[in-house]
C-alpha cells in the first residue's frame, strides 16, 4: 500500500517548487505510484491501461524484471562514468546496438537524452561537411537545446533561440499537406530550399519517419528516398531521428526509417532505448565518427554502466518477447478498430500510424479539418476516468497519441477503443 503524500499535496509542492512551465494533462491530475507491464496504478491502487507509455518510452513494459535486474546488479557493482577506463557494459551494449543497424552504421556515441543525441548528430554533420545549413521539417520535434530547438518546426516548442542555419521544409503530411500522400512532390521543396536558401551545399537533413510530438504523422510514402538523394547531391548527411519510432515500435520494422527503405548516415535514439532510464545514442559510420577526434569530446554520464546495462537488457527483452511482432499484430488490430470508430463518429477526421505508434485526429468539421481541441481534452479526461491513459499532440493539440508499451494486448486495445467509443457516444 501507498503511504506517501496525496495528489493534492504533490500538486501544491509542484506549484511552489517546480518550474511554472511544468504542465500536466488532466483536470484532476493523476498520481501514479506503481507501474507493471502496460499498467499504471494510482495511490488508491486503481489500475490504468497505459497507452502512452511515458511518451513512447516504455517499450518492454513498466519495471520489466529483466531490465530492473540489470540496473540493480550493475548499480551494486559499479556506477561510474567509465569512458576513461575499460568496462564491459558500455562495449557490450555498443556492439549489440550496432548489430541492429544496417550498412556501415556501427560507431556509437552515448548521451543522456534525445536532445543531446540530436545536438551531437548535427554537430558531427557540420564538422564532416564543413557546411552549416540544416534542413528539417515543419512540425518536427528534435529537442530543447539551441540547435535542436532550432531544428524543431513548431512555434509552441521554440523559445527565443538563435536559429542558426536551419531551413524548415514543407511537411509531407498526408492528411493536411498540400500534396496529400504524394511524397515526391513535397521532396521538391527541399531542393528549392537548397537552391534558393543556401550556397548549394548543406550539412544535413534531419527528420523523424513518424512525427511523434507533431501528432503521429507518417511521412508521405516516397518522401525520404527522394529527399535523401537530394541531400546527398548537395553534399549533406541524412540524420534519422528515431527517438520515438525506433526499437520495434512500428511493428513492421525495427527502425522507422526502414519503413521508407532508406539508410541514413546518422541515426539518433533515446526514449525506448532504456525503457525509462535516461539514455540516448548517436550511431554513425567509422568515417563520419572520425571528425570528433579533431578536438576533445566528452560526456560525463553518457554511456555509464548502469544505463548501458539497462539498454542491453532492453534489446534482449525486445528479442525474447517478440515485441516488434507484437507491436505489428496488436497495432494493426487496434488501428482497424479505431478506423471502424471513425466510420461512426464525424469527430474523428483521421486514424493513422503503424504498429504501436498510432494517431487519432479530432476535427469539428471533416471538410475544413478544424481542430477539435476542446473535444480532444474532454475525451482524454473521460477516458482517464474509465482507466485508460492516452497522449495528446499535434500542432493544434487535437491528436490522440497512442504509443503504449510494446507488450500491449488485444484485450487492452479493445478496452481502449470501447472506452473511446463510450465517451464519444455520450457527447
Ligand atoms: N526527438 C524526438 C522525435 C522526440 O520526440 C524527442 C522528445 N519528445 C526528442 C527528440 C528529445 O528527446 P529528450 O526529451 O530526451 O531530450
From TrEMBL:
GO terms for biological process: photorespiration. GO terms for molecular function: alanine-glyoxylate transaminase activity; pyridoxal phosphate binding. The keyword Transcription does not apply. Pfam families: Aminotran_3. It catalyses: glyoxylate + L-alanine = glycine + pyruvate. Its EC number is 2.6.1.44. Belongs to the class-III pyridoxal-phosphate-dependent aminotransferase family. CDD domains: OAT_like. Keywords: Photorespiration, Pyridoxal phosphate. It comes from Morella rubra (Chinese bayberry). Its cofactor is pyridoxal 5'-phosphate. Signal peptide: none annotated. GO terms for cellular component: mitochondrion. This is alanine--glyoxylate transaminase.
